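Retro notes
What went well: the complex prediction finally ran end to end.
Inputs used:
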Amino acid sequence: AQKVTQAQTEISVVEKEDVTLDCVYETRDTTYYLFWYKQPPSGELVFLIRRNSFDEQNEISGRYSWNFQKSTSSFNFTITASQVVDSAVYFCAWSFQKLVFGTGTRLLVSP
Amino acid sequence: DAGVTQSPTHLIKTRGQQVTLRCSPKSGHDTVSWYQQALGQGPQFIFQYYEEEERQRGNFPDRFSGHQFPNYSSELNVNALLLGDSALYLCASSFKTGGYTDTQYFGPGTRLTVL
């Protein structure tokens, strides 16, 4: 069975600090997809990124970057120069048909 | 282009009652998945509908059932409500390509409280 582990329950940083959210997954499948979603206090899950299992290229989008390493089954997410608006719960997820979510990491960015 | 919409936003029911939640997918999407998110937890997969049939199901009892209509909208029904059914119910839409379910986009959710 697939499993996603987000060991960091909560992280608190001060604005402009860099922060990395960890994600480790378990699967025996060779084809799969990995996702990050953001859940602000409003509750709606916002899609951030998708990577497929054959593409280990790191990706950068503005202040966000993602590091996918199959050798360690990790898909970590870094926010550079964090802002108060980044405060939310972030979920890592594995998928082929259904999404399997981790338990989430609550990020609190204070001014 | 409207995103995924869900109704109602909030719902309060008592134990033993039945509830129906509704979801309209994003334009162009043909697949609807339902998730239950308890407080402080990650969403848990309930089931997925494609071509008006339940295609996959998570570890939820038969009290949870669903339906997909020809216009791809969907309903989630929960019978004989228990206190433990209190949660945020999220609907996600996507489209299927080559047997794989593409990126799922979520609606705002329905907050169900069972008293």
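What we learned: The mean pLDDT of chain B is 94.
What to try next: split runs per interface for comparison.
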